[in-house]
Amino acid sequence: MIKKIILISVLSLMVQLITACVDCKCGPYRTILFTNKGLSIKNLDSNLPQPAVTSAGIIPSAKYGIQVQHLTEEVALRKPQIYWGLIQSAYACSCQSDYLKSKEEIVSVKIISNNDFDTNYPKGSDLSSIFMVKRYYNDELSSINDYLKTLKLEYQSNYPFQKGIFLQVAPTIAKKHKFKIAITLTDGRILEAETTEVELT
Prior knowledge:
Pfam families: DUF5034
Keywords: Signal
Structural class: alpha+beta
Signal peptide: 1-20
InterPro entries: DUF5034 (IPR032215)
Order of helices and strands: HEEEEEEEEHEEEEE
Protein name: DUF5034 domain-containing protein
Radius of gyration: 25 Å
Largest sheet: 7 strands, mixed
């Protein structure tokens, strides 16, 4: 009698183990749309082995960058599914996550200083041509315009400018600057944010 109970227990445990590893219970992958609500930008210092956000007031021009984070809001929410069983599905069977996609695309990016940068770039002019974007997949620097043209092809294009935008030319007139970034979206909205003041040496 005890052997039968043990046998039944072992068989039921084996069935649970097999179903936990085989049936991943993955639903159809969904595209979840999100919308861009705003920007958060901070000063970066690439003096370290890897660029880091800094609150330092003085940064060498050759090491200065801007971190750009998009503030987003989901338009569609994923409803979690509840599964019953004695054993949870194994991580080897874990499902691929849903695909996140922005409703809007970026049309243009402007970077503007509150002071004269040099004789070619007086206060209020667009400085985006003297900044370069670090690409996500290989850390190469690219002009902002070239980056925007290939953004749809980039891995993780839902997080543009994730690795930062870096200054390529030192200022010759004013050393203290607040940089404002204005990103124009396909729906006509313009997202703007400004860095804290930084002195570029």
